Amino acid sequence: MPSRIKFGSPEPAETPAAPPKPAFPAPAAASPHKLDSLKRPPPNGTAGSPAPPKKRKLVVFDEEAEQEAKERANGAGEASPQVNGNGGVKRRAAWGPEQKRKAKEEAQRLRPEREKLPVFQGKDAILKGIADNDTVIVLAETGSGKTTQIPQYILRSEIPCAGPRIVCTQPRRVAAISLAQRVSAECGTQTGGLVGYTVRFDNKTSRTTRLTYATDGALLAEMLGDRDLEAYDVVVLDEAHERSLRTDMLMGFLKDIQKRRKEKVRAWKAEQAKSKGKAKANGVVANGEADGKKSAEERDPTELKIVVMSATIDAKRFSDFFDRAPVLYVAGRQHKVKIHYAEEPQPDFLDAALKTVYQIHMRYPPGSILVFLPGQEEIEGLAASIKSFLPSLQKEYPDAEELLVTPLYAKLHAAEQAKAFLPSPPRTRKVILATNIAETSVTIPGVKYVIDCGLAKEKRYHAGTGIDSLVTESISQSSAKQRAGRAGRETDGFCFRLYTEATYNGLEKRSQPEIQRVSLTFAILHLLASGQDDVFKFSFMDPPDVESIKFALLTLIGLNALDKRGKITPLGRQMAQLPLDPVYARVLVASFVEGCPREIIDLVSLLGSKDQLLINTSSTRDAANAARQKFVHRTGDHMMLLNILRAYEELDGKDERKQWCKDNFISFKAMSSVLDARKQLLERAQRLKLGDPDASAGDEAEPVLNALIGGLFANTALRQEDGSYRHTMTKQLVAIHPSSTLHGKKAPAIIYDELVLTTKTYARGVSSIEPSQIRSKAPSLFGSSLK
Ligand SMILES: Nc1ncnc2c1ncn2[C@@H]1O[C@H](COP(=O)(O)OP(=O)(O)OP(=O)(O)O)[C@@H](O)[C@H]1O
């Protein structure tokens, strides 16, 4: 068993489940020592849990019935169609009467819990604040009910109109999906009915959806087709403290949209008054009054309400940005979170995390443990070391609860991520090892303990070289508070910070806005496509670096998305409408010229799930590489991905495909996502009339590589006489990443998906090309200077 580490005062509380309290041994004591005798703790929820709420009569909204009536009115059948973000319509299987009954019961069961949340006390004040102001900032503790409750309060109000339509943004897709599911359960309705979600390549909303949890990126994409966001009456910007690139962009846009919509309503009202006057004079009843309720399409224009929410923002800055919007403070926290700091700095945070997991397991009552770690590598490392101690735990303490380790990181497929949210099996304590994707908004049921290593991997972008590097850095105080806030959501909780209090006090108060540290190519193209002609004048809360803007403009000019004067071209407009990074959007457009759209649509769909597709854990890496040898293509990684998809599609039946995926260390679920993404891209390409998306180059690799160069020409390097590769423009040294099938091989020139900076500058996702191909496909950039 691992030894213990010392946490400073207050000492961990003695609990009914705790064994006799031992003195903490020195933190670095290397030799595993025996665990204290373990008494079985009482089952979850029986010790110290509050008395069950008294039964009382509840007023329950029959939202499902309301929904059905609306669907019938809209001409929909039993199953309501889901309009996906790309205009496609999926059918949602309707619930049967038994499912409806169960959902209603569950909603009733959740109701008293919801009424205990701190925001419930402030409900009237919050609604009044929103009704009286264009924009409000809501500041309330983590877990107080902001994200799940406030949008529901608005839903049942008449702000700013009867039956308001609300969108609540989230910086992360995992949060958007899990919130929509939770709030649907609270409403007793099916996800995608009254409450739904929209994230890239996945949309669960229907005509009856009135509350949508959307990623900030999905809402931005919607703005390209609905410039003033007329589909919504209220936009709730949640987790504003994260300062994600897309939330910052939305804030700038929303200010203008709000003004435009106000003006529209004013003009419309004047028009209405005029025609009413005329009608009265002629003895006719005005249309709206005679027709009763109007359908969604004919709704009267509304002003846009904006609600900005967080637990940890600098409220004054946000208030100033939104023209001194009032700040509503919601007092209180439903459950306490006790913070423990390490008494001494921990030189090895993985070792400290391991010790703390076992320390909690042996001393504290049941409850899942959520451990925050920087990335996948650390998650895999800690999972392995936790598991290595399990046999001795079972041997020495046969009565002890099991430990179940579940990872949670962005590259993990959604179905695997979902496992972290499932309840723990009986007599089992779950240990969720997560990156900062679990930091905000999410409630992982059953989590009572948080272990925070104080670090996160952040993307840093170097304008000028185009290098993205993932750097492990200390988190901010705001992030630390958010992490602690993941405990204590259902009961009181504990947060163990693997750093000292002095270290905490020295952390930055807030995280640096993403807009100041990532590539701006997407942002600039989007601003221009949305009608923002001068990007330097856009209303950013924290303007990005001028050099980064210039670099993005030059890249977009190189892609022909902008003309030489920086004006968006028709091609640029098409690119902005593709749900892809501008570079890959350009590759897709180029594929129609090269005669290989079929292959490129497949390839960009594969690249979208690339990280989840090939299962590469440290323990299975060799076996996986051996199994996948048969897909290797002489030109490298891109054609190999296509080979994998082709082989998969030749198989019949789900079972056969599943087994094949298992044998080849390929994620079946990720493959399903690839096929979904492909379908959506095909629809989008057809809608944009880019050409025949079925045109194919057959087995030929050259057209595919040419199309790749059409967008990725800035991601190319030439082999030098000494065997090294140098970037075509910057002449910087670039090495082929060991994960590439071209690693150790000689290619005259290479094209790659990304550069990452670790011990060297590595190219990942690499294919071999000829210098002449670069010359002919990207002449404007390189001219004859290729050497
Ligand atoms: N999926 C879920 N399962 C169980 N309980 C949940 C779930 N989602 C929310 N809750 C309960 O609702 C409470 C409020 O959650 P909510 O996300 O609305 O809080 P919040 O104030 O937005 O928190 P944060 O600032 O951390 O996002 C949680 O503390 C928890 O008790």
From TrEMBL:
It catalyses: ATP + H2O = ADP + phosphate + H(+). Keywords: ATP-binding, Helicase, Hydrolase, Nucleotide-binding. GO terms for biological process: positive regulation of transcription by RNA polymerase I. Residues 1-113 are annotated as: Disordered. InterPro entries: DEAD-box_helicase_OB_fold, DEAD/DEAH_box_helicase_dom, HA2_WH, Helicase-assoc_dom, Helicase_ATP-bd, Helicase_C-like, P-loop_NTPase. Residues 127-331 form the Helicase ATP-binding domain. PROSITE patterns: HELICASE_ATP_BIND_1, HELICASE_CTER. This is RNA helicase.
